[in-house]
Design brief:
mainly alpha; 2 domains; globular
Length: about 500
């Protein structure tokens, strides 16, 4: 039994040392180290060593003391092993795992779709200053008009004449244009395929009829306006013949664009609100025009009022445009039915600067681009007058990439500035090879021709009415009625389809 006594401590020592070796190996691997086999060799006594030989040694023999200590002590000596593990408080921080690349994408998308920053602050500031000046000017001119009615004399007679023969026709044109706006929207929703052809050809017929009617009055002013209407009608007819092959494609776009509209019963409310605000502002505006006749430089003031009205009406149209774009974009991107009210508030606050900037430049840019494309189509190889057509088209394409009507969707969805949204949208079209498809789209032209139809109808009504009661104002009121009909109908009536 004496020879077997050291065997049990040895087994216990071996198991203890193996556990410590496993812990040290795990620690080294976690810290990026490698397992060193020499440590195990130093801990274990040699296999060839026989414990029976120790019985021959005395109890005080140094060799026996060393061997017995190595087998009885569970932990290795400080000279043979590394220092003990540091306390958890001083241990190095764990290595952070790298964040997967797919994680930032949804996080960035959520932040972008809910951006709260104001876009195009400079244009927003300019528009607000313009609005304050316009309100002050309109209020002052209305005061001058009332003052002219009170004071006896020539100004009083002119003011009464304007109130009797000028104001009713303008108000009637405004009311008719709003009614037509509602009818156009309803008709396009019910018969989208038919309305595409009807709008294209009715704009030609109504414009031609208005021009012929004005010429029949046989006055120099009305004849001049009538010639302009007829010339526009001829161009409209040529355009209708040119886009005949695109009408079926446009009808499909209308049908596809109207699919989600039924899910949002209040989607048209911002448009109706803008139309109502436009009608009120138009009433005050016409009173200011009448009051300007009692102030200095009436033509210059009227011209400034016309420009202000055009910009304001375009901004109101784009506010409704941004609202609809936001609602539809969230429906397709998130699959959610967002509140039209909140989207409308966002368009009036965060995105109003982009609406102001786009309203100032997009109509002119798109009109010039149409002219450049028309010149490029009729260009002849040996004709000198069209030698710069390609150059003009290239310049207009460069400008169009930095400012186009397609940008309003990205402005509403991602809160981008107008120029950035225009560039990103056009780059997206180029990457998807959709440039030819975009150029083939005539929805914007349909919206424009809708305004032309309504303007021509207002002109026919106002011209016939004015010629019967006071022939002197026929030409002026005809132009003004066409302008009001286009502003009140052409832009807002098909906002949903244009998106």
């Amino acid at each position: 039994m004496g020879a077997l006594e050291p065997v049990v401590p040895r087994k216990i020592a071996e198991e203890t040392v193996e556990e410590e070796e496993y812990d040290e190996e795990s620690k080294d691997l976690e810290n990026g180290g490698v397992n060193i086999q020499e440590r195990a060799v130093q801990i274990h006594p040699p296999i060839e060593f026989h414990m029976s030989r120790m019985q021959r040694l005395s109890a005080t023999n140094p060799l026996r003391l060393v061997v017995e200590n190595s087998t009885r002590v569970a932990s290795p000596s400080p000279l043979q092993h590394p220092p003990p593990r540091p306390a958890p408080s001083v241990s190095p921080p764990p290595v952070q795992q790298p964040v997967p690349r797919s994680t930032p994408t949804p996080r960035q998308s959520v932040v972008t779709l809910n951006s709260r920053s104001y876009t195009n602050k400079i244009s927003l500031f300019v528009f607000l200053v313009h609005t304050v000046i316009a309100i002050g000017l309109v209020g002052f001119l209305i005061f001058k008009g009332v003052q002219g009615l009170i004071e006896e004399g020539r100004a009083q007679r002119e003011e009464k004449e304007l109130l009797k023969y000028f104001l009713p026709q303008v108000e009637a044109a405004s009311f008719l244009s709003i009614t037509l706006a509602f009818l156009w929207q309803k008709a396009v929703r019910l018969w989208p395929k038919f309305m595409v052809h009807f709008i294209i050809w009715s704009s030609f017929g109504l414009t031609l009829s208005a021009g012929i009617l004005l010429i029949c009055f046989q006055r120099p002013a009305t004849s001049g306006v009538g010639v302009i209407f007829i010339a526009f009608a001829i161009g409209n007819g040529l355009y209708a013949c040119w886009v005949t092959q695109r009408t079926s494609f446009c009808s499909k776009i209308f049908i596809k664009a109207l699919e989600p509209v039924s899910k949002f019963p209040d989607l048209n409310h911002p448009t109706y609100l803008m139309l109502g605000a436009g009608f009120l502002w138009m009433s005050f505006w016409i009173l200011a025009v009448m009051g300007s006749l009692n102030f200095h430089a009436p033509p210059l003031i009227i011209f400034a009022l016309v420009l202000s009205l055009a910009w304001t009406a375009e901004v109101m149209r784009n506010v409704a445009n941004l609202t609809v774009s936001r609602v539809i974009a969230l429906y397709y991107l998130r699959g959610m039915q967002s509140s039209t009210k909140f989207c409308f508030q966002r368009a009036l606050s965060n995105n109003l600067g982009s609406a102001c900037l786009g309203s100032l430049f997009v109509p002119a840019i798109e009109a010039l681009r149409v002219v450049a494309r028309g010149l490029n189509l009729i260009e002849g190889e040996d004709e000198f007058m069209f030698s710069c057509a390609h150059c003009c088209l290239s310049v207009m394409e460069s400008i169009f990439k930095r400012g186009n009507g397609w940008a309003y969707v990205q402005i509403a969805a991602y809160g981008k500035g107008f120029v950035k949204a225009s560039q990103d949208t056009w780059e997206l079209f180029l990457k998807r090879e959709m440039e030819r498809i975009v150029d083939s789209d005539i929805t914007s032209a349909i919206c424009f021709l809708t305004g032309v139809c309504s303007g021509s109808m207002c002109t026919i009504m106002v011209a016939a009415w004015t010629a019967a009661v006071h022939n002197r104002y026929t030409a002026t009121l005809s132009v003004l009625a066409a302008f009001i009909g286009y502003l009140m109908v052409g832009a807002p009536s098909l906002i949903i389809i244009n998106n």
